[in-house]
TrEMBL record:
Keywords: Membrane, Transmembrane, Transmembrane helix. It is found in: Membrane. Its main location: membrane. The lineage of its organism: Eukaryota, Sar, Stramenopiles, Ochrophyta, Bacillariophyta. Belongs to the TDE1 family. The chain crosses the membrane at residues 6-30, 51-68, 105-126, 138-157, 163-185, 210-232, 244-262, 269-287, 307-325, 384-402, 422-445. This is Serine incorporator. It is a multi-pass membrane protein. One of its GO terms (cellular component) is membrane.
Amino acid sequence: MGIISGTLSAIISGVTFCFCSASASLCSAWCGNDKPSTSPPSAKSGRMRSVVLLGFSIIVALSFQYGLGPNVSQLQWSYFIDAWTQSCENDNPELVKVCSGNAGVYRASSAAFFFFVIFGLAALCKPTANRDAWPAKYALYCLLCAGTCFIPNDPIFMPIYLWVARIGSVFFVLLQQIILVDVAYNWNESWIEKADKAEIDEGTGKGKKWLGAILFSCFVLYAGSLVAIILLYVHFGGCQSNDAFISITLVGSIIATIVQLSMSETGSLLTSASMTAYVTYLCGSAVSKNPNAVCNPKLGETSVGNIVVGLMFVFISLMWTGFSYTNDKRLGGSTTAAPEASVEDAEEGKPVGGVVVNENADANETNESSDTTSPKSFNNSWKLNAVMALVCCWYAMTLTGWGSIDKRGDISNPDAGDVSMWMLIVSQWIALLLYLWTLIAPSLFPDRDFS
């Protein structure tokens, strides 16, 4: 029995070790460190770990906003209570709770904002700084966040950081729309290039599958947008402001498509379909943030299901924003096979500076050395941190209704309010106007290069 017991213990220990090792490797790979332990992390790992820190800060912000902030008066520490309720003087106790919750968001957001600003400056001095010492960086953020809990609201958080976040959010909203228009064009151009390449490499008629994919995608996007607009009329119609927003979305999408088909030489139906789907999504988001209960029948539904769905939607959308807008291509990374090609290209075995990376260990070691010593591979690190800092400003304003304590949102719909609604609508109008300008500008100024 002793031998059997010892054998079973050894097997269980071995299996446990394997599971722990596999879990650690999986976690490390998800964070972007897909290299051996003897090799330094890649540039991609810095981006992934920055997004993880952003997600953690959003969780902390939501916890402060709906947990600690509204209940801070129940704590025993008078200094702590005074720090969180300063500048929140109001005769309405509910508004004081909202103000304290907003102050909690500013604390978590400002800690992340200053974190990314500090390491953005560090990346300017040392481009590879964004990939190093991430456990210590996570610890530093936790210390910053804990330290902000003991700082009074006035003047650091309200009004100084509040206005910093407002200004940063405006810049991010503008950047967001420019990037979305660019993404819509790039998607179309990418599939057309694939169709042309298939015609050349595989023979005549082989590119039709990509053209068919373009037409199918257009149909899905337009049909989905039309169904969404009908549902918006059904569920959010009957209110003057909502009807106006939905109608402007429909008319604006039709105008953009007509202009693209009749005037533009650079536009495409897939780009127009993508923009139609995007502005429809913005319209749906805007009307769902309407604080008027007559216009928004979903407002105030605080069942457990609505709370979970609402918080998960906010968290996922904010995380996706941070992840998608820090993509290397969005930050102006090189897409050629020049020596300054990205680390990801090297890892995938693509040509880098005329050298093809293969399965050979020596070649991999050489490539790792180049990855470590070439600052050009990390020349977008400061841009990554700058965009992350702007995202921190944006999520703070999204969760607090741009600093309004009477935004009338709740835990199931944290960002409902007049300011949030209007910012989404203005974002939609900016996106439509930018897209229309890209269609019309080449005809108005034929001598200029708009490629």
